[in-house]
Amino acid sequence: xxxxxxxxxxxxxxxxxxxxxxxxxxxxxxxxxxxxxxxxxxxxxxxxxxxxxxxxxxxxxxxxxxxxxxxxxxxxxxxxxxxxxxxxxxxxxxxxxxxxxxxxxxxxxxxxxxxxxxxxxxxxxxxxxxxx
Length: 132
Prior knowledge:
The protein is an all-alpha fold. It has one domain (2-129). The chain has six helices and no strands. The longest helix has 30 residues, at 2-31. The two termini are 31 Å apart. 35% of the residues are buried.
């Protein structure tokens, strides 16, 4: 019986964590000034690296939230806070580096690495503050 309860808890958390991560990816793609998924489909490595790095950064935040919050619905709210933190950081990065989006469109891998790094760093430094 305990195993079934644990599996139910796992399924609930997994589905909720996956849902907030997919929602983040959707919002992020809409927020970027370039067509992220089209660039990735066309083989643009800079776009792929940047997008995956930002997803990893968000997943770090989601991991922390879901490991600290027993209520999955509260975790979804914290996931929204994490989403906002990522979008704010990436917006600030675009102000600091105005050519970031055009460099990614041009396939400059260094721009994708910078975008990925920002996403991971934001995930690492904000995760401890989420759901504390």
